[in-house]
Amino acid sequence: MNVLEINVLVLAYLGDTIYENYVRKYLINKGIGNVNDLQKEAINYVSATAQAQYLTSMIDSNFLSEEEIDIVKRARNYKTTSHPKSCDIITYKYATGLEALIGYLDLTNRKERIDEIMNLILSE
Questions:
Q1: What is the pLDDT of residue 21?
Q2: Fold of 3-123
Q3: 16, 88, 106, 115: which is the annotated catalytic residue?
Q4: I need a labelling partner for 22 at 20 to 30 A (CA). Which of 91, 95, 104, 117 fits?
């Protein structure tokens, strides 16, 4: 199947799990040994607000390729009216764009690029 034909919300569904896995491993490697502390710290990375900020920063610094920006835009422009109560629809769509990008990169076997993106996010 052509990855570009996959619904962007499906890409985001996959990307969300990959993104969160990177964050969890990062926090565990930092030496946080308490589950409640891990959860509190993870919010700084996995909340829609944080994800939207990371994505905006990558766009503003020209870190993403045109192909990657196209995936983000497809996800961001996807017609949806639902979003979590914790953020506005625009923030949610940016977060979805980041997750869709991660999912897309995974399905196109670009783990090195996911590593680069996640290293940038986790080093901020």
A1: 97
A2: Ribonuclease iii, N-terminal Endonuclease Domain; Chain A (1.10.1520)
A3: 16
A4: 91
